[in-house]
Amino acid sequence: MRIETATAPGTPDRPNEDFISVALPASGQGGTVVLLDGVTPPPDNGDCAHSVPWFTARLGGALLELSVSRPEMTLPDALSAAIGRTAAAHRDTCDLSHPLTPQATVVAVRWDEEYVEHLVLSDSALLLESPDGEVTAVLDDRIDRLRAAGVRVGPLRNLEGGFFTAAADPAVVSRAVTGRTPRSRVRALAALTDGAARTVEVFGDDAWPDVLTLLRKAGPEALIARVRAREAAEESPDGKRHDDATAVLVEL
Fold this sequence. Notes:
Blueprint: E1 2-8, E2 18-23, E3 31-38, H1 52-69, H2 75-90, E4 104-111, E5 115-121, E6 125-129, E7 135-139, H3 142-148, E8 177-182, E9 188-192, H4 198-201, H5 208-218, H6 220-233, E10 245-251
């Protein structure tokens, strides 16, 4: 099994708000990937005393621990419990009802000898490669559909008809894109925050198979370097100069 990860902040003067972790249980028969992209807060930090990196570390750590130690729980159940645990850690000091309370996108993948289970919430991406080289992108495309319709996305965060992130409400797991694939049908997988997927989703230079090929040949650091070079060459259509970028490749 091959596992490689890389992450880089969008700018050196701000903390990286992404979270990535991989665990291989002692049984040796499976593993788990958890990737979160923290949502940059407003100036008042959503009336929260805690930073987004604090939140992503808490939520990501709880989700990783539950997905590894409680294999009988589905990934949605594990995420629901992790959200509840994280909310309890700062409910007494922070306004968790604020629409911009700390929150994050989520990609979680867990595999054993039989299946690869996945969960995607909001705009990070999961790529699954079959033994014959076909690449399937598992995406929660609500934000893309809203933007294509000319809708202003920001006010629709965690609202019906909008898009959803992991914040303080465990019920949000019902909005995640979930599924499972026979392990025999997955030879590799990759998880990317949107900052690492910009050559596909923002600049349109690459397709998802190109990304997986680059990850396999040169690793996640090369993918992030390609994104940064593209950002330096041309102003991005979305107006964002750089973003935190995180990628993980797992060859099963």
